[in-house]
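Entry 14. Ran structure prediction on the chain below.
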Amino acid sequence: MTEPSFRIKDMPSADRPRERMASQGPEALRNSELIAILLRSGVRGASAVQVAESLMGKYGSLTALSRASLDDLRATKGVGRDKAIGLKSALTLAQRMVHEACTEPPLLDTPERVADLLREENRLYSVEQFQVVLLNTRRKLIRVERIAQGTLDSVIVHPREVFKQAISANASAIILVHNHPSGDPQPSDADIRVTRDLIRAGQLMKIEVLDHVILGRKTTSNARDYVSLRELGHFYG
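Output, structure tokens:
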């Protein structure tokens, strides 16, 4: 005989996440309680809150949880196909909300602003992703294009792909961006060579390459989670 599911409504009123949200607001709830509301019910002797706490214990943070695939989520006891799809949908919507936060195209005239724009998206990538930020004459964002996907520590970039997107968008200038999944944002020799090749190609196309920002993570030795190759002196003129 199948064991009964544990539902949030079977919990004492004071312990129900939905009831607490209604009376105290969402800020009063822990991450696991918010996840439990999405899961709706537990299974086989575990409540939705217990399943949610198991997920948070396994992944440690919402960022890590958002990286999990549907199959990864389903590997947790109590998370079936529908629950995994619902949770993945909510986490994806949260990520997209970050991109809608600006009511007008942001001004991207410093590497810090570029890092702020793309930091959250790039945290989700487990391999290198090369992106180009397309800008108008006022250094405001037109759009971001993903140019190439690589491996854990390298990515191959073709200048024609970079500048095809820039020409299509009628961009005046571009900023190169890629991530280092290892967490260390310091450029490799290959990063520097690619940057200089693209600077030269941009000069021929009359499209200025303003910077190359590499995103990583903060550490005790890195006060910032990104570096700017322009600030490091790898741009000329």
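Residues 8-99 form a domain with the DNA polymerase; domain 1 fold (CATH 1.10.150). Will compare against last week's run tomorrow.
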